């Protein structure tokens, strides 16, 4: 059975790191309920949901995607780009150690939210959280596993996958790149069919691709309809409280197909 690794919402979520949003009150109980519904959507898709160790003192701990990269049966423990999140990686490594051989990013900073895999190419966003040194270190490490690393340029977004994610494939087998044109230029990505989201739905550029469906944040009806017309099974999940912490639906899980 494929696995999805998650972590519980910290009661201190309101103290999370913010880059693009103004700080507003976050209802941790409501965020926890939405996170549970998100985990249920993963389970409903046929994934075994495995909780990584709780980190109640770490506001951003629920955003596990930034701490590791899963590649074909391997786990690379990353180095997030804000100091407050550095200690999260040891907990992630502990939780993944029984499932994968572990490797560690040797230098620089990379947030997993900046890494978009398309085939054997890893597009890595140069962002406020991921630096050139980290991209270079990942290029050397992932290269030993047969992956090519390409730097991607970002505009108005926190992470690369905030504004661009894979939504599956069309009837010709071409990967569908769901993207927010204001955040990410789709011309950077080879061999994809771009699917632009409506300017009024910028959060729709971030989706979780599972075997036979995608998880899309609720509140993006135009994107949901467009994807359904392309033949995709769309599951909409309300993550509105978590979005106040700059969350996307990818950032709350590590998917191992």
TrEMBL record:
- Answer whether the UniProt record assigns the keyword Hydrolase to this protein: yes
InterPro entries cross-referenced by the UniProt entry: DDAH-like (IPR033199)
Is Hydrolase tagged as a keyword?
Answer: yes
Q: What keywords were assigned to this record?
A: Hydrolase
Gene3D superfamilies tied to this protein: L-arginine/glycine Amidinotransferase, Chain A
**Alphabetized PANTHER family for the sequence:** DIMETHYLARGININASE, DIMETHYLARGININE DIMETHYLAMINOHYDROLASE
The record's family statement is: Belongs to the DDAH family.
Q: What is this protein called?
A: Dimethylargininase
Which species does the entry assign this protein to? Answer: Sphingomonas daechungensis
């Amino acid at each position: 059975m494929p696995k999805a690794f998650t972590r519980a919402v910290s009661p201190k979520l309101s103290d999370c790191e913010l880059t693009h949003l103004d700080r507003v009150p976050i209802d941790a109980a409501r965020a926890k309920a939405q996170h549970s519904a998100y985990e249920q959507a993963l389970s409903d898709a046929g994934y075994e949901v495995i909780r990584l160790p709780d980190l109640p003192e770490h506001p951003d701990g629920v955003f596990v995607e930034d701490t590791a990269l899963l590649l074909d049966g391997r786990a690379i423990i990353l180095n997030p780009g804000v100091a407050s999140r550095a200690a999260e990686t040891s907990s992630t490594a502990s939780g993944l150690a029984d499932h994968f051989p572990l490797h560690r990013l040797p230098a620089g900073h990379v947030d997993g939210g900046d890494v978009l895999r398309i085939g054997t190419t890893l597009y890595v966003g140069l962002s406020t959280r991921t630096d050139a040194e980290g991209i270079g270190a990942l290029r050397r490490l992932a290269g030993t596993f047969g992956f090519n690393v390409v730097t991607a340029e970002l505009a108005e977004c926190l992470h690369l996958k905030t504004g661009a994610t894979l939504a599956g494939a069309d009837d010709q087998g071409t990967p569908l790149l769901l993207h927010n044109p204001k955040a990410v230029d789709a011309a950077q990505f080879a061999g994809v069919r771009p699917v632009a989201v409506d300017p009024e739905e910028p959060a729709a550029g971030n989706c979780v691709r599972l075997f036979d469906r995608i998880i899309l944040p609720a509140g993006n009806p135009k994107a949901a309809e467009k994807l359904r017309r392309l033949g995709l099974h769309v599951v909409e999940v309300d993550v509105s409280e978590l979005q106040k912490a700059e969350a996307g639906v990818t950032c709350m899980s590590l998917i191992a197909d």
